[in-house]
Amino acid sequence: MRWIVLVVLLNLAVPAGESLGADPLAIDCWPAGPFEVRVTYDRPLDPAAAKAIVERAAGQSLCYYTFRRANNQGTPGTHVVTDVQSLGPPLGQLRISGARVTDDGKTLVLATDPHPRQALYVLDPLIPKMSYDLSGIEATWHEPKEGAAADWSGVFKVLEVNSGGNGSNFKRLPSLVKRLDRPGRLVLRTTLGIPKGPQTLVFESTAPFEATAGVEAITPAPIKGSPTKFQGVVTSEGDPIDLTFTVTTGKAKYFTFNVTQGPDDPSGAVLSTRMMLPWVPSASPAATTVPAAPFSLTGGDPKKGEAVFRSEAAKCASCHSVGGKGGSIGPSLDELKGRDLAEVYFHIAEPSARILPEYMTYTVARKGGEIAAGIVRGEGFDAIRVSDIGAKVTIIPKADIEEMRPSSSSTMPVGLPGAIGEASMRDLLAFLTKKN
To answer: Which of 163, 287, 303, 383 is the residue whose CA sits 20 to 30 A from 222?
Structure first.
């Protein structure tokens, strides 16, 4: 049986600022939720600078790259990237749908489309050198009443530093610290990637707590010789595990949430690098081998294929564009020019085999019970836009969202080859793959 040591200390990931220079310095950035990024400065931006950066952010996108640690030696959260070119080609872009400056000019808030995957998100050139990943813990504080809505929410990213000794981290969390003295519940949620098989978690807490792995309760047993240490076993199937910790506040002013490898890893590597915010979509499955097509794909007529593309039978142009003409719900198909016919056919016939992260489908449950499903885009700070399989668009206020879950199915319907026939399919493939 492998052991994982889990020490439960409260800390918001705000690194120490550097010395003040001539201009305000961006000292930290983090995802405050699936639709929001925050950047803090060492001192307030003046009104002109704040206006300029908000205007510059409008309509821009953040590039994201293969997830890696950058100059942080394994610590999750904020990264300093001095050479964007060294990261290689970007995996995609995250659109900014709104920007504003809050906290008396010390915080820049960016509204975005939903973050599509764990990756390194780079703010350059909007904020030079700053970037972040989606590691961390979602934290909410609730009144003691059962079912009470969150009275405070935040993201903890630095997990391995005990702030109980000097209280320096508490100074960065005044809105939460004043609640820790009151009776209530602090709920911590994260997704932890651990090896397959039974795993022993060791908790250390100065306050009463409950723990669950997925929907199963973890039953901690006291560890002999320590009144604050407990251990419990969870079983991993090799997939990330959703962990939730509910700690009773008002009885202790701090607690820890550190994860270190046990005896199987003599180096004591910090496992916080495997912890992701609970709303991060799962990684896409490995690329599927393209099978042989059931009929010949060659000999199509590109001109007839364009008519098929824009026809009511195929409805391709409702969601996709070619040469700048068509819909924008799905990705542009210009990149298919010159591609292998069998590969293009496979992804039309099996649209869920490979879904670009930016075009992932979500199911959105509203507080009134209504359900919307489709591709989600941000609509500024207060709403999202959901585009469904029929290209119908629904605007949903963020305050009305009860839950949002990613789906493994594409919004693109299956069965198109059978619906339009072999001849039309050959023509469509000729149109999509023809080089200019």
So the answer is: 163
CA angle, residues 271, 276, 277, in degrees to nearest 5: 140
Pairing of β 120-122 and β 61-65: antiparallel
- One domain, residues 322 and 229: no
Domain assignment present for 327: yes
Q: How many CA atoms lie within 13 A of 66 on its CB side?
A: 5
Q: Where are the beta strands (DSSP E) in 13-103?
A: 26-33, 36-41, 61-65, 78-80, 92-102
Cα-based distances in Å from 141 to 106, 159, 247, 339: 24, 18, 9, 52
Do 141 and 267 share a structural domain?
Answer: yes
Q: What is the DSSP letter of 73?
A: T
pTM of the model: 0.80
- Domain assignment present for residue 288? The answer is no
187: β partners: 140, 246
Any idea which residue has 């001095």 for tokens?
82
Residue 419's domain comprises 302-351+413-433
Residue 120 lies in a domain: yes
Query: Residue 413 carries which DSSP code?
Result: P
330, amino acid identity: G
Asked if 126 and 153 sit in the same domain, the reply is no
pLDDT, tens digit (0-9, with 9 covering 90-100), for 45-98? 999 999 999 999 988 999 999 876 544 434 445 566 767 778 888 988 999 999
Q: What is the pLDDT of residues 128-177, one digit of tens each?
A: 888 999 988 888 889 988 878 888 888 876 543 343 433 434 444 667 77
User: What one-character-per-residue DSSP string does 179-233 give?
Assistant: HHTSSEEEEEEEEE---SEEEEEEEE-SS-EEEEETTEEE--EEPTT-TTEEEEE
In angstroms, rounded to a whole number, what is the distance separating the alpha carbons of residues 331 and 322? 10
